Amino acid sequence: MNIVLLGPPGAGKGTLAALLKTELGVPHISTGDIFRSNIKNGTELGKKVQGILASGGLVPDEVTIEMVRGRLKEDDTLKGYILDGFPRTIAQAEALDTMDTIDAVINFVLDDEEVVKRLSGRRLAPSTGRIYHIVSNPPKKEGFDDETGEPLIQRDDDKPEAIRHRLEVYRNETAPLIGYYRNKGNIIDIDASPSPETVLSAVIAALRS
Ligand code: AMP
Q1: How far is the CA of 34 from the centre of ligand 1 (A)?
Q2: Which residues pair with 124 in a beta bridge?
Q3: Residue 94 and residue 68: Cα distance in Å, rounded?
Q4: Catalytic one among 36, 122, 123, 130?
Q5: Which residue, judged by its Cα, is nearest atom 10 of ligand 1?
Q6: Mean pLDDT across 189-203
Q7: Rg (CA), the chain
Q8: Which alpha helices (DSSP H) does 25-141 contain, by range?
């Protein structure tokens, strides 16, 4: 099953994808994670996109589309995949339509106030990408990962100025995808405000029906 996760930043797409991946046995493909790992490893792509990610802007479509095209050719995608953070523009959605058939688009619905609350409190373990929230999902020891003990970090783009920019980019560039997929008839709206487990159950029930 090929699934796209759509929704504003901070809606919990990454958290849900990690749970859903285990449930469905298909890979979780996050374009944000791929960019961040390129930045961490100092690759050419990483150098090119570092400033864009820090500011909360979008990497150019051509770069992102070619990266996803390559990733979807890998063998682990044969039984399906969960796309998280792609497509983010109409051009990307049109390109994706030429690559594969998307079975379901899960649209996470969350208001702006909650988005800001979630993003500003988000922390992550740099080596594993494990996500915490200082209020709703704190680590056992403040500031450190439960598993590896490494210090947690705040993403540059989870700082206030970048959050504002990301929300604006979401509204202008990504939200039009809701109409795009609504027209195709394969979109499922999910309230993203409850706990990850509740959201997961709602998503699984919706996918089954
Ligand atoms: P995310 O982890 O999904 O919030 O993505 C983090 C950042 O990576 C975004 O703010 C963009 O700068 C970049 N990015 C991720 N996915 C895309 C995409 N599909 N198109 C353009 N830029 C992207």
Answers
A1: 9
A2: 131, 153
A3: 13
A4: 122
A5: 56
A6: 95
A7: 16
A8: 31-40, 44-55, 61-71, 90-99, 112-120
The predicted-structure confidence for 71-86, as pLDDT tens digits, reads as follows 999 999 999 999 999 9
Per the structure block, which two tokens stand in for 127? 């080596």
Residue at 118: amino acid letter: R
From 209, 193, 207, select the one nearest 82 (Cα to Cα). Answer: 207
Give the mean pLDDT of the chain. Answer: 95
Residue whose pair of structure tokens reads 């003990």 in the numeric block: 149
80-120 residue pLDDT tens: 999 999 999 999 999 999 999 999 999 999 999 999 999 99
Residue 48, Cα to own-chain centre: how many angstroms? 20
β-pairing, 131-133 vs 2-6, is unpaired
Q: What is the pLDDT of residue 160?
A: 87
Identify the CA nearest to 8 among candidates 71, 80, 88: 88
